[in-house]
Amino acid sequence: MITAHLTDAEIQLYVAEPEVTSEQLKIHIHDCVNCQTRAANYRLLFNGIQDQAKPQFDFDLSNLVLKQLPEPKRAFPWTAILISVFSVSLIAFLTMFFWSYMEAVITGASMVLMVTAITAAVIILIFQAVEMVKTHQKQLHTLLNVKKLQL
């Protein structure tokens, strides 16, 4: 048997979820007048909270907020397309201009060096892809948690 009085957390657990409360705590509350009184007070408090009407606005707050937000601009991504076209054109031009030098480097380099360079490039691309996926998942998780809180 427990000789000391129960804490507030133990009594609240007994009132809120009696099925998970240990037998020792139940026996102590049954025998202790002080803890019985505190449990009765918490029971009244919990019932009073549950019986209260949910607060409601007499207006639609979401409509008021949405009206104040600016309209999203769905512009065509000219900048991204321009940079992409410029990059591809530059790579194509440099490949054509320096093709004879690149061919000499490729044929003159050892196979081990070429495989090492390609392997390093592939590993870097894999790490960047994994990092992008992790960042995307973190942002999505944050967005979903914010959305859940608003509902």
UniProtKB/TrEMBL annotation:
At the top level of its lineage, which domain of life is listed?
Answer: Bacteria
**What keywords are annotated for this sequence in UniProt?**
Membrane, Transmembrane, Transmembrane helix
- Transmembrane domains' residue ranges: 75-99, 105-130
**Which protein are we looking at?**
Zinc-finger domain-containing protein
Source lineage: Bacteria, Pseudomonadati, Bacteroidota, Sphingobacteriia, Sphingobacteriales
